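Protocol step 4 of 6: structure prediction from sequence.
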Amino acid sequence: MFCQPYFCAKKALLCIAVWGFPVSMVAQARCVLIDKETGVPVRDVKAYTDKGDVFTSDYQGNLVIDSAFHTAALRHGSYLERKVESREVKDTLWLLPQAIKLEEVVVWGEARKGMFPWMKIALEQAAETATPPPGGVSFDFFEMFKKKPLNKKARKKNKQILEEWDKEEKKKNEN
C-alpha cells in the first residue's frame, strides 16, 4: 500500500519538523556568569565545548552557546576553571575567583643599625662642601633631620602650649 506523493511529502515534512524542533531548542544554551564572591557579572569567559567550539561571554556576563554539546569548560584568567554539562547551562553559573595562597613565609634578615644610614653620609658630605653665607644668616637643610633633645626651657614652653590648647578644646566641647 503506497501513499500518494503529495501526502507522503507532507508526512515526511511533519516528521522532520517534529524531530528537528526539539534538537534546535537543545542546541542553544544561555546563562549568565557571575563572580561568586562579589555577585558581579564576569566578562570574557571562554567556553570550550567538547565538540571543539569556543564561545565568549559579553560585558554583562551573558554566555550563549549556539551548538549542541555535552560538556563545556569555562575558563578565565582570574577564576578557577569550571566544567559544566549542557543541562546545567540554564540560568546562572557562579565562578570562583582564584586565590593565591602561600603556605609559609620565612623572612631572614639582620637587625637595623640605623633608620637611614645614607643620611649620615649625606650630612658629612654637605658639611664638607658647605660654605658660610655672606650675611651671617644660614639655613642648613640637613639640620632638620638631626634629632636633638629639647632643653628644659623648650620642654616647658611646649607643655604650656599643649595645656592652653586642651583648655580651649574643653571650652568648645562644653558649649
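Step 5 (inspection) to follow. Helices lie at 5-27, 117-129, 152-174.
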